[in-house]
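ARCHIVE CARD
CATEGORY: sequence design from structure
SOURCE FIELD: tokenized fold
FIELD CONTENT:
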């Protein structure tokens, strides 16, 4: 799936079948459903899930929690626009 296809799928009522939990969480985040997104990654021990988890806490304004999850993901703390980070994450996770 391309980034454009992934982004356009957000217009649907459910994420595309077969998405890994971190990508599904990004999809729900784009839909504005923080709770569904968070539930998909909160117990996942993988680095990709930790990265998305960090993004979600940054989006909600909980920067100390976000910093923890960026560290768990092995990623530098993001400081740019949330939309830019979402695109970068989706691109990386779709690759």
């Amino acid at each position: 799936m391309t980034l454009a296809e992934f982004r356009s799928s957000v217009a649907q009522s459910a994420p595309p079948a077969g998405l890994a939990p971190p990508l599904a969480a990004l999809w729900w985040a784009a839909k504005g459903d923080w709770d569904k997104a968070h539930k998909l990654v909160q117990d996942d021990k993988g680095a990709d899930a930790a990265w998305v988890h960090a993004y979600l806490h940054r989006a909600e304004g909980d920067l100390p929690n976000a910093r923890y999850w960026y560290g768990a993901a092995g990623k530098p703390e993001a400081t740019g626009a949330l939309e830019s980070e979402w695109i970068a994450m989706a691109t990386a996770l779709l690759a």
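CARD ANNOTATION: The mean pLDDT is 96. The radius of gyration is 12 Å.
SHELF: design records, drawer C
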